């Protein structure tokens, strides 16, 4: 029998090889992928997120946990083609045009995925056109914009303006994050919310969807 509690521990401690080994064992035993994700993987990501907020864990631990979770999740994905209905919602995420930073953005993407969202990660240096295409193709409910430079943060406004012009602004909630942005900047550009860490981003995404 696969010891799924050790999967929880492996993700919490960022042990990728152990997480993959236990997941492989659980797959061989036909354990329901949603049970693995909701009962153990998401719980581990939520707990590491709480520890981070309480100052008991730091960014390296979050990154290692996210890496372990992603490794295990990748093994489950082929079994979940028909399980979209279990997802909390769809999120398109990317770093805006002109900005090539992606560590924080990838961490947010991993946390969202680990906590039950379907995530379409577009990468870095993404234009408003690419964001809009991805939202339409995936019927995403949330758009996450990231920027690490003061020179690129203003492009977030351009993306929101483009959503308005295309007529889909009302269909998608816009979240922003990154070192130079703030709550007041989010209000200024008409975003729906701002978060300064990956755990807060998950909480915000859940609250925006239930609003």
From TrEMBL:
InterPro entries: Cbl-bd_cap, Cobalamin-bd, Cobalamin-bd_sf, Met_Synthase/Corrinoid, Meth_synthase_dom. Residues 1-88 form the B12-binding N-terminal domain. Residues 88-211 form the B12-binding domain. It comes from the Bacteria. The keyword Transferase applies. One of its GO terms (molecular function) is methionine synthase activity. Gene3D superfamilies: Cobalamin-binding domain (3.40.50.280), Methionine synthase domain (1.10.1240.10). Keywords: Cobalt, Metal-binding, Methyltransferase, Transferase. GO terms for biological process: homocysteine metabolic process; methylation; tetrahydrofolate metabolic process. One of its GO terms (cellular component) is cytosol. Belongs to the methylamine corrinoid protein family. This is Methanosarcina family methyltransferase cognate corrinoid protein. It comes from Parabacteroides goldsteinii dnLKV18.
């Amino acid at each position: 029998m696969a010891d799924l509690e050790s999967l929880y521990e492996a993700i919490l401690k960022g042990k990728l090889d152990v997480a993959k080994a236990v997941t492989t064992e659980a797959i061989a035993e036909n354990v329901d992928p949603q049970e693995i994700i909701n009962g153990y993987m998401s719980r581990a990501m939520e707990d590491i997120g709480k520890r981070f907020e309480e100052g008991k864990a730091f960014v390296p631990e979050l990154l290692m946990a996210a890496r372990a979770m992603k490794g295990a999740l990748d093994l489950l994905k082929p079994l979940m083609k028909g399980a979209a209905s279990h997802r909390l919602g769809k999120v398109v995420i990317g770093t805006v045009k002109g900005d090539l930073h992606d560590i924080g953005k990838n961490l947010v993407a991993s946390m969202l995925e680990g906590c039950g969202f379907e995530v379409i990660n577009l990468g870095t240096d993404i234009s408003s056109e690419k964001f809009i295409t991805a939202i339409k193709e995936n019927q995403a409910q949330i758009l996450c914009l990231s920027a690490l430079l003061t020179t690129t943060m203003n492009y977030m406004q351009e993306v929101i303006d483009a959503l308005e012009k295309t007529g889909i602004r009302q269909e998608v909630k816009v979240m922003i994050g990154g070192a130079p942005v703030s709550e007041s900047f989010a209000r200024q550009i008409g975003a729906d919310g701002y978060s300064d860490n990956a755990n807060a981003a998950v909480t915000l995404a859940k609250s925006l969807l239930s609003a």
